[in-house]
Amino acid sequence: IFFYFLFKKKLRKSGDEFTKLYPLYYKTLSDGFSSIKDTILFDKKTFFTKNFFYILSEMKKNSILQSFLTQIPRGIVEIIFLFLIIFFLNLLVTKFEYSFIEISSLMGFYVIVCIKAIPALQKLYRNFSIIKANESAFENLETDLLEAKKFSETNLSKNENHKIELKNKIEFKNLSFN
């Protein structure tokens, strides 16, 4: 929970940036390949290449940051648990004068619990982090779907009032094309 709230803003910012860059990535690819003749003739290869690699490197940075922020807590939590176990073992032996044999089974139990709990907690944290990082993509998708629904409802109400009468021919008037 601590790491989630610590990295929540960075994950969101990284996800927002990735969401903005993703369409630019495909647009750059499309622009470069759709006008390949012009690109070669007017020697614009370096322009498209620089633009593409800049967007690609920014996407990689955000992807690596997201991956790093979702993986880092496991190592830190394992180190903290190790030091806590050593601290409590030392405390019980020195302060309360327990023998190592008396507390070894208890410590073994806690070590096994930690070994089993850490991966489950890491998965939980990682999933929450992934959700936070991709929240902006969900919001964009939600906005698009709501607009599409509104557009669809508007067109349905218009089409219900305006019926098309079919005749034996289709005629185009004042049609131009560029």
Which helices and strands, and how do they pair?
Elements: H1 2-34, H2 36-41, H3 45-94, H4 100-133, H5 135-161
Helix pairs in contact: 1-3, 1-4, 3-4
Protein described:
It is a single chain. The chain has 178 residues and is mainly alpha-helical. It contains 5 helices and no strands. The longest helix has 50 residues, at 45-94. It is elongated and about 100 Å long. The protein starts with a helix and ends in a 17-residue tail after the last helix.
Notable features of this structure?
178 residues, mainly alpha, 5 helices
Radius of gyration: 30 Å
- Supply the helix-strand structural class: mainly alpha
Mean pLDDT: 86
State the helicity in percent bands.
over 70%
Shape: elongated
- Name the poorly predicted regions: none
Spatial gap, N to C terminus: 59 Å
Helices and strands, in order, run as: HHHHH
Beta-strand fraction estimate: under 5%
Give a quick account of the main beta sheet: strands, pairing sense, barrel closure. Answer: none
- Tally of helical segments: 5
Record field, number of beta strands? 0
